[in-house]
Amino acid sequence: ISVAIETTSRRGGVALGAGDRLVEALPFDAARRAATQVIVHLDDLLGRHGLAPAAIQELYLTAGPGSFTGTRIGVTVARTLARALPLVRCVAMPTPVVVAEAACGRAEIEHLAVVLDARQGRIYVTLFERADRRLRAAGPPAVTTVDALLASTPRPLHVTGEGLGYHAVEGRGVIALDESLWLPTVANTWTVGRRLAAAGRFTDPADLAPIYMGKPEAVRLWEQSR
To answer: SS3 sequence, 153-206?
Structure first.
C-alpha cells in the first residue's frame, strides 16, 4: 500500500495505491494551508478503503519548489508519518518532475521547460529532454530570466508550469501547453513516486526537507536590512 501527498500548489491532494495500481486520487483546494486538511483527507481516503495508517508501506511526496507554507506542510506531514510508521519507505521528488509527467505521453515533445515564478522578474526553470520515451531532466534547475531561457534553449521548445501565469514566455518555436497541465497533480505524484520506488530511489526520512528556489522572502529581506 502506498500514499502520495501534493501540497506545493493550490491544487493539493492525496492518493492511494496498491502495488502498481493507482486506487484513488483525491484532489482538494489547497488555498487553505492547514496541515489538518491533509490529515483529514488522507484519513478519509484510507478509511473509505478499509485501511488504517499502519497499512502504509510507501509514501511519495512532492517536495517543492512551490508554495512556501504548503511545501512545509507536506514535508511536516510526511516526516510525522515516517516517525509514527518507522517501516514506511519514502520518495521525495521536485515539483517540476511531477509537472513534466503530464507531458510524457505526448510524443511530439522533445524539449520541455517547466517554469515557476521566482519573483523580481525572474523564473525558476527545469529543462527536460526526451530519452527512452520519457522526459528526463537535462540538467539542474536554474533561476534565470525569460530572455536568457529563450536565448539558450533548442527549438521547438514546449513550456509549462505555473510561472506562465506570471511571465510571457513567447518566441519563435516556443509552444505553451494547455493551462490545465501547468500545476502538479497528486495522481502524477503517485505515478512518479511509484516509478522511483521501483528503481529503489528512496529518501531517508531524516533527509525529507522542502526544496526552495531560493531563500525565503523574510530571510532575504532581513539579510538585506543588515
So the answer is: CCCCEEEECHHHHCCCCCCCCEEECCHHHCCCCHHHHHHHHHHHHHCCCCECHH
User: Average pLDDT, stretch 180-209?
Assistant: 97
Which residues, including other chains, have CB under 8 Å from residue 18's CB and lie 6 or more apart?
1, 2
DSSP label of 124: E
Report DSSP letters for 58-108, one per residue. Answer: EEEEE--SS-HHHHHHHHHHHHHHHHHSTT-EEEEE-HHHHHHHTTTT-TT
Please tell me whether the overall predicted TM-score, pTM, comes out greater than 0.90 for this model. Answer: yes
- Whether the Cβ atoms of residue 159 and residue 174 lie closer than 8 Å to each other: yes
pLDDT score of 87 = 93
Q: What is the pLDDT of residue 12?
A: 92
Q: Grid coordinates standing for 204?
A: 531517508
User: Tell me: the pLDDT tens digits for 134-144?
Assistant: 999 999 999 99
Within 10 angstroms of residue 14's Cβ, the number of other Cβ atoms is 29
Question: Measuring CA to CA, which residue among 216, 223, 167, 225 is closest to residue 65?
Answer: 216
Cα atoms found within 13 Å of the Cα of residue 154, Cβ hemisphere only: 9
Distance separating alpha carbons of residues 75 and 205, to the nearest angstrom: 10
- DSSP bridge pairs for 89: 58
Cα dihedral value 214, 118, 68, 166, nearest 10:
180
Q: Are the C-beta atoms of residues 202 and 90 closer than 8 Å to each other? A: yes
Of the candidates 82, 131, 128, 92, which has an alpha carbon nearest to the alpha carbon of residue 210?
Answer: 92
Residue 16 parent element (H or E): strand 11-18
